[in-house]
Amino acid sequence: MKVKDSHAPTAPQTQQQSGEDTKGVLRELVAHLRQNRTQLREEWARRITQARLLTAMTEEEIFAEATSVYDNYVEALETGTFEALQAYARNLSERIIPRGVETHEVIGIVLLLRDVLARSLFEKYHEDFTKLNRILDSYEPAANRVANTVAVGFVQERERIIRQQQEAIRELSTPVLQVRERLLILPIIGVIDPQRARQLTEQLLRAIRTNRAKVVVIDITGVAAMDSNVANHLVQTVEASRLLGATVIVTGLSPEIAQTLVTIGVDLSEMATVGDLQGGIEEAERLLGYKVLSLAEPAAPPQPA
Amino acid sequence: MEVPILKQGHYLIASIQSALTDADLSQLREALITRVGKYRARGVIVDVTALDVMDSFAVRTLRDIAHMARLRGSETVIVGIQPEVAFAMVQLGLSLKGISTALDLEEGLAFLDAKARERV
Question: What is the pLDDT of residues A83-96, one digit of tens each?
């Protein structure tokens, strides 16, 4: 693989080089990194701790990760292919993001590794300046590309997690739960805007279909305020559910909401309302023909001795 | 397209298979109301599972069928309204107030059976 040729065509050329020569330089570089693996790795881990990066991880963990990163790094330099490193970076990000590792830390440690390795190269070749230049010509573009790959992998992983969480929040905002055969509850929490009301209704209607629900309890204890729009949405939801053959019971109307609704004159005559969620579920059970008995207190009076 | 009307016990079942024109709907209404008397049906079930749209005429016809059947001594249930259709209907203000609905044919039959038991 011609890392140098393909990635740094504009790098300063100190002398005439053939492809063979570049390969030779790279081979020498990799050999050097392999030879001094233990020492460079330790130096790197020490620098990481010194710079107070990765504070969320223990020293052993840092050392273990450093080892794998180092090996992957050297491999990427040697082969000029970044797929393995990319996969590793993604995997690493997956593991460390939940532990609160920040972007600047990840970029920081990769740059530290680059510096540590560059220093060791300086040390080794400081007597032969031309050779050092050739080695660096090979090393720098590849090292930068590695840093780039790791950083991009980390950021991509973060973005993936954010997208996933947004999706989860959207789903969670309208959970339709089955509590008994054919009985669903829909607790609504927070602000209801037209878009959410629509999503809510659609999700409820789909759930009624899939669960073959007969009764739905909509609990709006968590809704702080209600205006005529929201009330109308609610009425529409009730009516649409009825078209699918399900009865809706609305529970948890706060005193404020009750007053508002009566004051603004929303017609809720079509809606069955019960004070709280418990009452709503009891009413629903009654409609479905369930009877809930406590095992501790036998319902039947004790038999005479 | 003519809608087949099946007799099942004391009930008539009209199962709509495809989108209907206004003429088809009127024809269905006529046929149902006539047959309610002919078969002495106690209940009518109109299955609209196959419909993905329901316009105002269709809704009005269904409402008329229910009211007319009731006048002739028969209870009507509309079954199988799709979630999307239900949503569109309430948004357009096309309501089926006062008319029984059920999830599907099975539920509709169960509902009519329960009604019949109530009457006994």
Answer: 888 888 888 888 88
